[in-house]
Amino acid sequence: MVAGSGVFALNLITLTVIVFSAHLxxxxxxxxxxxxxxxxxxxxxxxxxxxxxxxxxxTPWRVSFLILSLPALMLIAPSFWCYVCGITAQSPWxxxxxxxxxxxxxxxxxxxxxxxxxxxxxxxxxxxxxxxxSLLTSLSTPMQWLVGGTLIVTFLLxxxxxxxSGYYVYQVVGRLHQYRRHLKDLFASTEEKExxxxxxxxxxxxxVWALTAISLLIDNLLFSFHFDGLISGAVxxxxxxxxxxxxxRQKPGFEELYTSQMEVEQVLTxxxxxxxxxxxALSSEQANTIATKIEQAMQQDQLYLxxxxxxxxxxxxxxxxPNYISQTLNESLGANFFDYVNRHRIEAAKQTLQQSNDTVVxxxxxxxxxxxxxxxxxxxxxxxxxxxxxRKSVHVEAAN
Length: 400
Hints:
Structural class: mainly alpha
Shape: elongated
Radius of gyration: 28 Å
CATH topology of the largest domain: Rhopdopsin 7-helix transmembrane proteins
Order of helices and strands: HHHHHHHHHHHHHHHHH
């Protein structure tokens, strides 16, 4: 009894978080559509998780929501993928940009759900709630074929959901990797834009997805099997709360460039970048001139001290095309924008570490970093030492 009430309480709290968060996301989606897919994702999760609450508070709706949980299940992964596309998009994301093929499994599941909803209520209840298929023998042959076919397609869709989820996890990982590389071509500080919480969420989703898939397969193929309700309820609540919290806090990484004159798409990476540069009209003489301007902007004007410095700001400062600056950085100066600016910040930090007793955090903030962790990472990459180790080694050399 205690366990049952605990599961109910956790489920009710989770659904409350979902409803509240989805409402806030839908309000934001009126201005920026990137938030709409996450609202759809959370609502779909809510439909799938609604059974314990409906069993206690709204029994007549229980079977209908159980049937609707199939298309809702098929909607979770593609809507989450749309959200990731939205917050990593180079221009304001719109739903019409997405291929509708992503929602084909959802459409098929919708047809199956509609078929099940049109079946007699006693068949729905006995099959879905009681899990008793003995009534099939008492049905007419056409109804037996209809019910049996629906059950088979439902099972195949569950298998498809397992495959679909794995596919989208893979796609999201690749998308985030490419997005974070692109950020470093445009911004000198990327901590708040990288959406690292999505990486941790994906790890958690991967574990839960695997365990859920195993549970569903065993339950459908071998014997009745379910994870402890309290544990799964608590894990689900934590994950939903995390998605809601960070999803509401996360802004699209390129949002500040949406209204600027800069064409973000021009600043490409990897093989696309090389192809673009080969067609560029930038001569070696022009590149040298731009490189000199960039060096002056850093060494004389100390633009690196601006913690929000972006490629667009540098372009405005030296009156040069962002694409030409990016090409010059990569081909003439041998670094992307992020690494180049941080190199100057580290040089300034090294001087301060030698000449003052300021704390490492104070120095990090003074030279343009937004976070201690990013300062440590950049400093160690540049010097193979932590800031404290560097300061100590300098003092030892001075003493000798």
